């Protein structure tokens, strides 16, 4: 069975050809037209990725994205919208989206972005009995399990989006060393990303907040003009 994709789009002129194209690519595709339905379907039925329009008839797509992340949806989210301003992109990423494509769009570009995101999120939806990785027994100790794509602060699992996990895993792999902004952009967003580097700052800020909320004994330090470093010890109050 192919990976499951939920298309959330109320415009038949966009949704019908998009669903047809994705189905031909071998994905299992479901389409819904309302935000409330999208939240319940995405949370309850093992979707790997959500393609999300913002201009929905009942709930703004940004609120849908926020609800999905707040409820622990770990798959990819690509926002698809006619809102093309820099502020709209930043707000979309700030509430948990992994990518942002403006309408009108080329199907080839969407497919390239989608494939790149699915490659990174394929392991994130593995269903397993929660278990704390070895070494995470102490309260607040940050443990990153790259194979299972799971993060723990002590015995508490931290729910991260695909891009948040990819950033943290790369920083953790180089814990104590500076990782440049260029390397983070290249390895986490890859060659298909043509957006602003503000995307990195927004995602780092969101990741910092989640680590702080989880009481993690680790902090992301900004090295101005260079990049970021993951250090042991909680963030300063």
Automatic annotation (TrEMBL):
Residues 134-232 form the OmpR/PhoB-type domain. The modification 4-aspartylphosphate is found at residue 53. Keywords: DNA-binding, Phosphoprotein, Two-component regulatory system. Coiled coil: none annotated. It holds the Pfam family Response_reg. The keyword Magnesium does not apply. Residues 134-232 bind DNA. InterPro entries: CheY-like_superfamily, OmpR/PhoB-type_DNA-bd, Sig_transdc_resp-reg_C-effctor, Sig_transdc_resp-reg_receiver, WalR-like, WH-like_DNA-bd_sf. Residues 4-118 form the Response regulatory domain. This is Response regulator transcription factor. The lineage of its organism: Bacteria, Bacillati, Actinomycetota, Actinomycetes, Micrococcales.
């Amino acid at each position: 069975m192919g990976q499951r994709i939920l298309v959330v789009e109320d415009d038949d002129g966009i949704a019908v050809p998009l669903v047809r194209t994705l189905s031909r690519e071998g994905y299992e595709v479901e389409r819904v037209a309302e935000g409330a339905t999208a939240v319940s379907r995405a949370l309850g039925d093992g979707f790997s990725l959500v393609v999300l329009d913002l201009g929905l008839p009942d709930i703004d797509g940004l609120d849908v994205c926020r609800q999905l992340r707040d409820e622990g949806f770990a798959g990819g989210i690509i926002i698809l919208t006619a809102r093309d301003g820099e502020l709209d992109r930043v707000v979309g990423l700030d509430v948990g989206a992994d990518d942002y494509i403006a309408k009108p769009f080329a199907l080839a570009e969407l497919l390239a972005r989608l494939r790149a995101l699915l490659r990174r999120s394929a392991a994130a939806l593995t269903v397993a009995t929660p278990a704390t990785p070895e070494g995470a027994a102490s309260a607040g100790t940050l443990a990153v399990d790259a194979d299972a794509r799971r993060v723990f602060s002590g015995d508490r699992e931290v729910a991260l989006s695909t891009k948040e996990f990819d950033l943290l895993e790369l920083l953790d792999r180089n814990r104590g060393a500076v990782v440049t902004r260029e390397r983070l952009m290249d390895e986490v967003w890859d060659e298909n990303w043509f957006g602003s580097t503000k995307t990195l700052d927004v995602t780092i800020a969101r990741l910092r907040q989640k680590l702080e909320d989880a009481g993690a004994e680790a902090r992301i330090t900004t090295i101005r003009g260079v990049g970021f470093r993951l250090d042991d010890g909680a963030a300063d109050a």
